[in-house]
């Protein structure tokens, strides 16, 4: 794992020696003390519930007060702002829609860092630009707090059943503390390296997922038009080198597989808008690092075109439907 | 399997009733009688050897006499032309580089159909345009012979060890007879449907394979530039929805995996030129059927650019190297 | 122009010496003798009328008898088949939808070559694969006739007003004879080189046109979303290096320009289906010559997706509408 | 032009009434008083010289002292920092490589805004993200200064000969004052709308330019492989709908045109790296505004691949060379 630290090794070493032991000693290390939670949307809500179920008292907030009702009835304490949460809890999890929200919740006028306690552990599970994660980590360190990025793989269903996968970036010394909480909400908690690498891993996975999904949709559509039975084609691909998650686990062709959105008119699942957002993040990081991603860039554009043509709310496997001939053509 | 016949069902039914029983009775059904083999290149040579090993006397030919020497020493009879082979054997396998070769070997002045016996079983394992397979089947039927397409998945290694996968198109009644021979050369023999569907399945698989490989190369490269350890990133992808054959079985990043071309300077394996050829076939069938294949088309162009830039002879996973920054940049 | 002949120079030289003088002497060289015309569709009809206006008696045919009525009323003689036309006229122009039609009209059972007179001049103005043009030229030569390809640039309007551009491929010695007829139907008649180069020039132009049109649509849409006034943006592009025919002559944004399809709900003009067809030809020639055309390939796929999504009948500049956000999104 | 102000109309109106008259009265309106210049690189140096030639005393600075020598010898006063320049001059032009440099020069610890005089006119000719221009305008307004973006079209040659085109965004009331200075350095000064629209126009133009250039390179390469003479093909395109700036003014094929980089081994001109940078800006603005740009995105990736493969320093028309078959293939 040493290779992961690279350029920031010395920085981290220094930080470790001078600051770390002091920080940890000041944090409430006794398990089952209260945990803060900011962002109670479709994902945050079931995640916070699972923390509650595991016995952690929850102090939460959300910009939409109605989002907090259910959790309040289950016993959570609801406060007015992230700053107020940070004033009471020294372990906080945030789950927000996008980079600007994260910036606001951490560094805004009522943000966490306004009242954060020294030694606090701040875990952001939003999917955002890794460079923003790094900025937040720097800002948190200035206040004596520890910031980690821990975006998730898996949707609302996995959030409800506590089966999310967390990809965690940040100081390795803090991983155990983070894992204690994240394990209540997920089945896998993977350490990825320094701050931002959790986001990077998430973004990389979703870029390859999008490419595989569009590729599977094109391939299945082409095969069907060439006279192949869709189920048979899927079977052949899945025993051959064309095999991928989109072909063997989440096939986009209606009727090939049970229990996936393609069998339910592409409802539920992972929306085209969200995939377009993640591909936008992949594109940003690729542009910033001058990395060529020809298929990733085109996948991004295809999901953008789909959003413009009425597919925004459908599962991302609806690209199969988008590519097919419209009825009556 | 009935669904596969669709539009050609009536044609096949008629054909079955009037012609089929007559044909089969006239073919040498006793196993282990001689088998013809046309095309003794890198793939055809080990395939013919495996037939020999299984006890079938081989009558072979190739445009390059030197290609025949090894097989001759092993006991095969070498003749001058495909027509001569067809004159002696009523089961013939062909393994040729591209569509024009197939057209020539079957319908040329010294082609198989000049001397083919009524009821002969002709199996073409070349990877070609499915519309050419259909043309050959029509031409063979006119001479009272049966043509099947049976392209392979797996390279020279799989050909040598008899572990190829055959994707077979043609009259379902003939599949058992074809499988008897193909099983000597492969581990999987899959019936795909009417004539041409073997090619279609092969082309579909390789298109998705190319998309998955380039996607994996882009993703691994992006992740590495974002600070992720390549082995860790591969591990994360392979337990997540980014998983595909190129990430978990044939990873293009040197050092991530043992025993794949990326660990051997991209030597061996499946050449970029061959992948470009298969993607050209996919593009042709997509254009002919007016099927949009945006990622497939771009994958084709990327392999074309690679061929133009010196990667023609390397394994197709070398796209990882192509996308990386050149040293000194 | 010598460089254009290249590999076929010797062939042409031989042909010129042995055959050419004989052929020409046998053809009706007197101007204003009858001209054959096969294919009286949207383009062929006004083209044949312009020949009539120029004083040439017309002998015509079409698979749809009703297509011939108007021309018959104007004095043209209508016959039953291309063979019949070839029996009467030794200069014939063909204007057909696609390669299979051309193959049938020339080499089919009632095709031109069944009754063609020695020395006849056969000019095909269809847009087809240049390799088919070459095949037709070889077949014509066997019958002692001369085949030239002369596809057009410009739509129905230019056909009506006699303002088409003809791109002509074939023996340079025949160009003057071809130009005599083509000048009655077009404003520009350009000699491009050996047989097939007329098609090649046409295909090349339309590929670049498609790229420029989609590029202009993307650029105008992006600029508008960034707050630029569309007319001002068009003006800036047109005085700068972004200038192209699609930005300065056929702008795809409604309201920027008068008298173009974008101002008329994308009706009229050059249909998306036809552009997709031409891009399919470009893709075929690129695949056959192993030429990378990344943007051309993607342009092809975008027009294919548009055809699948209801834009088949609209002018090809409707890509601007396809890329824009749907209302209510 | 009113339509351009849209959402910010009210903001600008308010600003105009309360602040504007006060600002202008305090600025040195007498022409030929000193002008500040920050950034004396390949472009900034000749631009500043042209201001000097027009009679404006120049006060300049650059992070590399050696860049200032030539201008100092011509009579310019060289200071240590942008802040120092702002302390002396109330009209300042900046010409910097990228967004971070602009942010630093304006808002950094020694930046212009540290000592800017009320009513100063700040004109940024760098090519950067329009959202950064907007940020700088807001920051400048807080200090009572006016910020305009005025990126240029045209390279070092146009900068030397004073033939640049400036695309200007900002308060329309200030355009006359800006034009007075910019006219000394350019042949065209175009008002585009509110702050950031100069950048937007520049980015839009360069995106369409890149698409047109790659499209021209693909088309010329395809035509040549199909047997067309390159000069003839260029001539045909330029009289047809394929015409664009890259085909008729800056043709990428060596030998087609005089006086362009393709005739000089792709030296000079507009480097591939710079084009890749501008396409990255186009991609960022498209991603932020959720605008699909399929060809623009692919053009970006192609220039990225070229940078990775050794073309970083060549003119952007070298894409023709990149797409061609390497010798010996």
From TrEMBL, chains A, B, C, D:
Protein's pathway: Amino-acid degradation; L-valine degradation
UniProt keyword annotation of Mitochondrion present: yes
Keywords: Branched-chain amino acid catabolism, Mitochondrion, NAD, Oxidoreductase, Transit peptide
SUPFAM superfamilies the UniProt entry points to: 6-phosphogluconate dehydrogenase C-terminal domain-like (SSF48179), NAD(P)-binding Rossmann-fold domains (SSF51735)
Protein's UniProt name: 3-hydroxyisobutyrate dehydrogenase
A Pfam family it matches: NAD_binding_11
GO biological process: L-valine catabolic process
Gene3D superfamilies noted in UniProt: N-(1-d-carboxylethyl)-l-norvaline Dehydrogenase, domain 2, NAD(P)-binding Rossmann-like Domain
Residues in 3-hydroxyisobutyrate dehydrogenase-like NAD-binding domain copies: 196-322
GO molecular function, a single term: NAD binding
Reaction equation(s) it catalyzes: 3-hydroxy-2-methylpropanoate + NAD(+) = 2-methyl-3-oxopropanoate + NADH + H(+)
EC identifiers of the protein: 1.1.1.31
Principal place of residence: mitochondrion
GO CC terms of this entry: mitochondrion
Xref: NCBIfam families: HIBADH
Cellular compartments annotated: Mitochondrion
Family of this protein: Belongs to the HIBADH-related family. 3-hydroxyisobutyrate dehydrogenase subfamily.
Organism field: Anguilla anguilla (European freshwater eel)
This protein's record includes keyword Iron-sulfur: no
Limits of the 6-phosphogluconate dehydrogenase NADP-binding domain: 34-193
Active site: 202
